[in-house]
């Protein structure tokens, strides 16, 4: 009888969370950017910023469609690692996945796509030397790097109900191949260059959810490890390693 009561109680807990998740929802989370950005010039700390992330979830039967994204953020200034040079970056992010909840288990599997858009501007001022007596002339060189990188993302997830209103979930994603072309332009020399690159990404999310009347609150942490190399010579293009605590709220739609 004790075992049967425990099984019934667990089923009710699971059903309570399942019902909360059975309605479409729209949400917003704030993610703190903590980590490093690395290029051939060196490694620098990523500026600590509150990054807003919009999220829409549409469940249907054993499936769930999730779309999330970050609107264009920036330009954000940071240390370039190059003497007498400043750098700013503007970036946007989009992600979508179709997730399948495996029957009678806490496991899920998903397939989707991920996309980044970025523009980095590096500005450096140098002094043009003179051979004859004259006044040295300052010269400002600006380099624009623009790229769009995307690829297929594979996901595995695990979710448990802690109570009728609380749940804990873990998602791990892998994007093994991402392709992009970096478009470089340098002024005032009017030089342009296209450099293909190949990238990959591993990401994960640990999420604690609490359902209240009319809203679901979420707290957790994200991990992102993005690595890219130039296809021509295999040299490092850039690597971003981020650990991002977050807090957010979502609102169910409909009844």
Write a structural description.
The protein is mostly beta strands. Helix content is 8%, strand content 73%. It has a 10-stranded antiparallel β-barrel with strand order 1-4-5-6-7-8-9-10-11-12. Strand 8 and strand 9 form a beta hairpin. The radius of gyration is 23 Å and the shape is elongated. It starts with a helix and ends with a strand. The relative contact order is 0.18.
Summarize this structure briefly:
The chain has one helix at 2-21; strands at 25-32, 34-39, 42-45, 50-60, 63-79, 85-101, 107-128, 137-161, 166-187, 191-212, 215-230, 236-252. The chain is mostly beta strands. The model is unreliable at 1-20 (pLDDT under 50).
Q: Could you list some keywords that capture this structure?
A:
255 residues; mainly beta; 10-stranded antiparallel barrel; 1 helix; disordered N terminus
């Amino acid at each position: 009888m004790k075992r049967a009561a425990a099984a019934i109680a667990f089923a009710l807990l699971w059903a309570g969370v399942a019902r909360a998740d059975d309605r479409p929802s729209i949400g917003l989370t704030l993610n703190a950017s903590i980590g490093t950005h690395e290029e051939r010039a060196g490694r620098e700390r990523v500026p600590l910023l509150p990054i807003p992330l919009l999220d829409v979830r549409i469940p249907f039967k054993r499936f769930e469609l999730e779309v999330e994204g970050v609107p264009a953020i920036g330009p954000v200034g940071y240390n370039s690692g190059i003497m007498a040079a400043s750098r700013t970056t503007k970036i946007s992010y989009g992600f979508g996945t179709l997730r399948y909840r495996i029957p009678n288990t806490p496991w899920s599997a998903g397939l989707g796509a991920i996309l980044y858009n970025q523009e980095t501007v590096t500005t450096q001022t140098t002094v043009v030397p003179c051979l004859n007596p004259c006044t040295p002339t300052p010269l400002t060189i600006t380099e624009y790097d623009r790229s769009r990188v995307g690829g297929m993302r594979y996901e595995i997830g695990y979710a448990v109900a802690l109570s009728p209103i609380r749940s804990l979930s873990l998602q791990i994603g892998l994007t093994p191949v991402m392709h992009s072309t970096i478009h470089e332009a340098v002024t005032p020399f009017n030089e342009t260059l296209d450099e293909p690159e190949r990238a990959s990404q591993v990401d994960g999310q640990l999420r604690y959810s609490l359902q209240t009347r009319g809203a679901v609150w979420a707290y957790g942490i994200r991990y992102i490890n993005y690595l890219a190399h130039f296809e021509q010579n295999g040299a490092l293009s850039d690597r971003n390693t981020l650990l991002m605590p977050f807090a957010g709220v979502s609102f169910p739609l409909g009844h």
